[in-house]
Design a protein that fits this description.
The structure holds two protein chains of two kinds.
Chain A (H helix, E strand, L loop, with lengths): L2 E8 L7 H9 L4 E4 L6 H11 L9 H15 L2 E4 L6 H15 L5 E6 L4 H5 L20 E6 L4 H8 L4 E4 L6 H11 L6 H14 L27 E6 L4 E5 L9 H8 L9 E2 L4 E3 L4 E6 L2 E5 L2 E3 L4 E21 L3 H16 L5 E8 L16 E10 L2 H12 L1 H4 L5 E19 L6 E6 L1
Parallel strand pairs in A: 1-2, 2-3, 3-6, 4-6
Antiparallel strand pairs in A: 1-7, 4-18, 5-14, 7-8, 8-12, 9-10, 10-13, 11-12, 14-16, 14-17, 15-16
Helix pairs in contact in A: 3-4, 6-7, 7-8, 10-11
Chain B lengths: L6 E8 L2 E8 L5 H7 L2 H7 L8 E6 L4 E6 L20 H5 L5
Antiparallel strand pairs in B: 1-2, 2-4, 3-4
Classes of the chains: A alpha+beta, B alpha+beta.
InterPro entries (chain B): AtuA-like_ferredoxin_dom
Pfam families (chain B): AtuA_ferredoxin
Protein name (chain B): AtuA-like ferredoxin-fold domain-containing protein
Chain lengths: 443, 99
């Protein structure tokens, strides 16, 4: 019976590389996927590309490729990644150049294109924004990027044409992992049960360490051995689409039914309706069974026909956020932090700011509870607001800083920052409006 | 008893929508959370941050409930002024619920 092994090499753009190298060296992998694009990452990358046409791909591409190319040559593991971000062609060229410098020959690199639908979107401003119901024209001038969550198509085509490294822009995360299953097992694109199963496996792998003990440890209730040496996961799959998930023996971390269940439901709304460009996956009946240490068997995912639209993430400039922080300690520190916050708020009233908010770190900055603990030794005030311009946003941090000589007793350790806000709106675009194609280079 | 004694949880985010999975350590406690941790109760408990409705999905074979919290992330991950824009820490506060 044919089996393939696919590893999860990164769970976000800046993820650790060492566990991926361990997987590549010792995991006996056929494929490894590096998922590196968060919701707005591609909008930031598009801005970089606008300033410099040779940028706009993942910042760690060179770092990762320099380390993995020699291993790929030896192990013949194929790499699939959305590290191309806003510029998959340049990512492909950079990868080719690194291989050339290292003397690595015989690899075929592919760039999957077509997810960038900015031109189409600029002419489709009547489309309603899913989050607000308003037409795209309400953010028209601020739009900086528009990328469709495309499916497996381009990746499968590249695999059929013998690509060893496939770099994409925006692709639905699970599709990065589903594509090699379709290619290896010859699954039909209308076999939605299989596509649902493969999507489930992709979903388990796409956050890498988050299924193998990362983001799980909670003292004795959820002890994770050697979390510092967290091993990334791989799935071993059968043609039926069922299989098991595990990690390299000797690495830290934990894979059991609890870690798998947490990851299965991560970022899921209705578990019976997980919409991807390839299918509507149904995770509602999924079962996990621990069959050995750090080894879990999965089954009973399924799926239905996909919708005829792609979700498109539209990135747009949305002003600036200014922030200032200052700490207070000792007796009545909460009360002094509150007084300081009220002073800053009042001083900012003269300015055209939006959403001015005051948090006390240690008390209520993340907590939705209304409780007031006693005996806190220190707290930190955070004042934050939105502004239309960078200059206006700087006032917030400055008014926190001036508390040094114009505020209550004992404030210390001021920090301040201004960030440009790049927000994301979603729209649906007919699949027929998107043209996916693949380009290749050889090393 | 607090929820964290019998269950664990993870938060996910999409736009301005948060989801929290709630999973029992022992399957025998599933019926307890199914009965006690209703969508309404979660809406009340996290009411300070959840401006929209709360929906609940059941996965008995996994001992899990999945809560979907609408308008819960201060406008959304990419525009919120909250310090935890993703609302990742919300699950820890769900686990503080007494049952």
């Amino acid at each position: 019976m044919k089996k393939i092994r696919i590893g999860g090499g990164a769970g976000y753009g800046g993820d650790r590389l060492e566990p991926a190298l361990k997987l590549l060296n010792e995991g006996n992998l056929d494929y490894i996927g590096f998922e590196c694009l968060a919701e707005r990452t591609i909008a930031l990358a598009q801005k970089e590309k606008k300033n410099d046409p040779k940028k706009g791909y993942n910042h760690l591409l060179e770092y990762r490729m320099s380390a993995i190319l020699p291993i790929l040559q030896e192990k013949r593991t194929k790499v699939i990644s959305n590290m191309g971000a806003a510029n998959p062609v340049q990512a492909m060229k950079v990868t080719q150049e690194i291989a050339r410098k290292m003397g690595i020959k015989g690899l075929k690199i592919a760039a999957v294109l077509g997810d960038d639908v900015l031109d189409t979107i600029r002419h489709s401003l009547h489309l309603p924004i899913l989050e607000t119901g308003k037409p795209l024209s309400t953010i028209g001038p601020q739009i900086i990027s528009a990328n469709a969550y495309i499916g497996v198509g381009g990746i499968v085509e590249a695999l059929k044409n013998g690509a060893d490294i496939i770099l994409t822009g925006r692709v639905s995360d699970p599709s990065l992992f589903l594509a090699p299953m379709i290619f290896e097992f010859g699954w039909k694109m209308d076999d939605f049960e299989k596509l649902g199963k493969g999507t489930m496996i992709g979903h388990l792998l796409e956050c890498a360490g988050q299924v193998s003990g990362g983001y799980f440890a909670d003292l004795n209730r959820k002890a994770v051995p050697d979390l510092w040496d967290l091993g990334f996961p791989f799935a071993e799959l059968e043609e039926s689409g069922d299989g098991l998930i595990s990690k390299v023996t000797g690495t830290g971390g934990l894979i059991n039914t609890a870690t798998c269940t947490e990851q299965l439901l991560y970022e899921i709304h209705d578990p019976a309706q997980y919409l991807t460009p390839d299918c509507i996956a149904d995770f509602s009946k999924v079962e996990f069974e621990a069959i050995a240490e750090n080894c879990v068997r999965f089954s009973k995912a399924t799926g239905k026909k996909a919708t005829d639209t792609y979700k498109v993430s539209v990135g747009y400039s949305n002003g600036y956020v200014g922030e200032g922080q200052i700490s207070y300690g000792g007796h009545d520190c909460i009360a002094r932090a509150r007084l300081a916050g009220e002073i800053v708020k009042k001083r900012l009233e003269r300015l055209p700011l939006q959403e001015v908010r005051m948090d006390i770190l240690g008390l209520n900055s993340i907590s939705p509870m209304e409780t007031e603990p006693e005996g806190l030794e220190e707290v930190r005030l955070r004042v934050c607001a939105k502004a239309d311009t960078f200059e206006m946003a700087r006032h917030i941090g400055q008014e926190v800083e001036t508390l040094y000589t114009n505020g209550p007793y004992g404030g210390g350790g001021v920090s301040q920052q201004v960030e440009e806000v790049i927000s994301v709106a979603s729209v649906l675009l007919p699949k027929s409006a998107v043209n996916i194609h693949v380009e290749y280079l050889n090393t | 008893m607090k929820l964290y004694e019998i269950a664990h949880a993870r938060t996910g985010d999409k736009g301005n929508i948060s989801n929290i999975s709630l999973i029992v350590f022992e399957k025998s406690n599933y019926s307890l959370i199914q009965e006690k941790v209703t969508a309404d109760r979660v809406k009340d408990w996290l009411g300070k941050v959840v401006k929209g409705e709360v929906k609940r999905y059941e996965l008995p074979q996994l001992g899990a409930l999945n809560f979907v919290l609408y308008e819960a992330l201060g406008g959304g991950v990419t525009s919120s002024t909250q310090i935890d824009k993703h609302g990742k820490s919300l699950s820890a506060f769900l686990l503080e619920m007494p049952i």
